[in-house]
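User: Teach me something about this protein's shape.
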Amino acid sequence: MNGERPVKISEITAIIKEILEGSFPSVLLEGEISNYRPSSTGHLYFTLKDDSSSISAVMFKGRSRQLAFVPRDGMLVRAKGSISVYEARGTYQIIIDSMEQAGTGDILRLLEERKQRLAREGLFDEKSKRPIPFFPERIAVITSPTGAAVRDIVQILRRRNPAIHIVILPASVQGSEAPESLARQIETANRFAMADLIIIGRGGGSLEDLLPFSDESVVRSIAASKIPVISAVGHETDWSLSDLAADVRAPTPSAAAELASPLAEDILDTIRTSISLLEQSIRGKTEKIRLMMGAFTAESLEMRFRRIAQPRLLRFDDAKEGLLEGMKKQLDTARRRLEMASAGLEGASPRAILKRGYSMVRNAESGAIIRSASEATPGTLVEIIPGEGIIFARVEEKHDEEI
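Assistant: First, the predicted structure itself:
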């Protein structure tokens, strides 16, 4: 190295920049989006990767406006742009001019397959969702003990309602050990009934970073939890299968803390309002009763009694008149039937027949009715009974022939 002039970093970087940018003024890459980070200014930052390599990528606002879709982690895309070297950091990246979807990435395919399979088992059924307690006395927070998420959750819970007890159940939220750690803490919280509500989550990250929250063991633990669970994984645009298995999905850990804790001042306002409404109701009813009592004089009671009794007395009189009228009609009908029957009987009596000109003849000694001339012999004393009176006669002769 003696006598050899050191090359400045800026010089070697400039050479690399010239070589790279000159060699790849336009390149078409296909890869999966990871660690997608849209900025507030409209620029899109993310990583494009395949099975073994990755490259930083940026799509500036002017180009990103032309996208026909919303990029997200795990999405497989084809991006056309140029290779650029960022000299300040000595890194290279692709500056994308245009981009189109190329299909579904491996991770998304994996998650979709797992999602469909667990859904068929009923782990995401809405009917299985448990209600979040309105006023949980104790909340278990399952997350990294050193992350920003736990600080945000604790700070918001303390601010909104200091009466709530917070139990931190530390867990790994990233890496291969995370699924087992998360599932174990959910089971621990349930086994020892440590809380009325569980918040499980972490801050934002790439789709790969959030994968533990889509692990099957974690999803099954959440679905089997007897304690209601709020899932708060990443930012609002992030998602995981834990969100589907949980009873409530919060867009962020901070939002989960707000959902879990009613504002103490709101509760007090509600109690004060309820007390005020109850007092007003009691005063109103008391005043109404007082006015009613003041209106109850002897005269008013008599008037009230008359107003109540008069209609009933009228109805009673009407009913009585109706009953008497009905009975009179029935008596008249019965009387007419009796008269008709009597007339019929009278017309059929022997006396009535005799009065029409007929007479009855009987033997005066035996009293037997003589119906035929053969029943009498000359000299027989007979009684002839016409319509009125009786005639005694003796048979002089008889003729048996039919007249």
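Now, about its shape. The first helix runs from residue 9 to 23. The chain has eleven helices and 13 strands. If you'd like, I can walk through any region in more detail.
User: That's plenty for now, thanks!
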